[in-house]
Amino acid sequence: MAAKSWYLFTYDVRDDKRLRKVAKTLEGYGTRMQYSVFRCYLSPRAMQELRWELAKLIEPEDDLLVIGLCGACIDRIRSLNGSEAWPDDPHGTMVL
After folding, report:
1. Which residues face 69 on adjacent strands?
2. Which tens digit of pLDDT belongs to each residue from 17-33?
3. Cys-Cys link to 8, which of 17, 67, 83, 91 (CB 3.0-4.6 A)?
4. Domain range holding 41?
């Protein structure tokens, strides 16, 4: 089984219906951090599936930014609102 990695997804979808679909899709793969920001702990296959699902929803006028985060990046993340840590093996944020 391939190692899982953290990804940060952020988006700006200009149509409300598409926006809800993108958010609902991401909710199935990760945890909402802010209104249009999600963190996801994904295997390479799950990442490929999620990108494929999002590609069907996103239109050219929309924006999607996906940032892969290494272990050192995760260690440097600081939150001012006291949200939960980014564990190495999170429970409840994985898609099997």
Report:
1. 6
2. 999 999 999 999 999 99
3. 67
4. 5-75
Residue 82 domain-assigned?
no
CATH of the domain at 27: 3.30.70.240
| SS3 at position 85 | coil
93: burial class by Cβ within 10 Å (0-12, 13-18, 19+)?
middle
Backbone φ and ψ of 23, nearest 5°: -60, -45
Dihedrals phi, psi of 82, to nearest 5 degrees: 75, 25
Widest Cα–Cα separation across the chain:
37
Q: Give this prediction's pTM.
A: 0.79
Q: Which residues are paired to 66 by β-bridges? A: 9
Enumerate helices (H) and strands (E) in the chain, giving the number of each. Answer: 3, 4
